[in-house]
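Predict structure. Chain length: 146.
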Amino acid sequence: MEISVNERSLTHRLAVYIGPYFDQWHTDCEYNRLGDKGKNLPRPEEFKTSPDDTSAITIFPDIIVHRRRTDYNCAVVEVKKAGNNRGLDLDIAKLRGLTMAGDYEYTVGLHLIIDCKNAAVAEVTAYRGGEVDDDLTAFAKELFIG
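Prediction complete.
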């Protein structure tokens, strides 16, 4: 990763690497379907344009580990390149929404900050039940960062 690759290219390559660790599951990038419908979340407060704004936002998670055409959702991953804070708040809102009780209920959500220059994970935060999970974050940091 010596060159500054596009974030989508980065997430695709990461999905290719992690896929074999999830036998019997599908690993997809930018997968925006829930059955026949698009994948939507209620618009988070910080993104509402007015108090009456109740519309949903269509989401495209960077990477998901799931079983297609079922309600079995294992993991959702959002990735940012180090130094790129654009869309960071939306990534966090997606991880909170996708891991809380409701239509999706992913078991775990991970937010990874990738240092492309050093080809390393610079930061990781883990989500469960719509909140940061400190114990899981500590485990993920040990696993990804050392």
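Summary: Residues 7-144 form a domain with the tt1808, chain A fold (CATH 3.90.1570).
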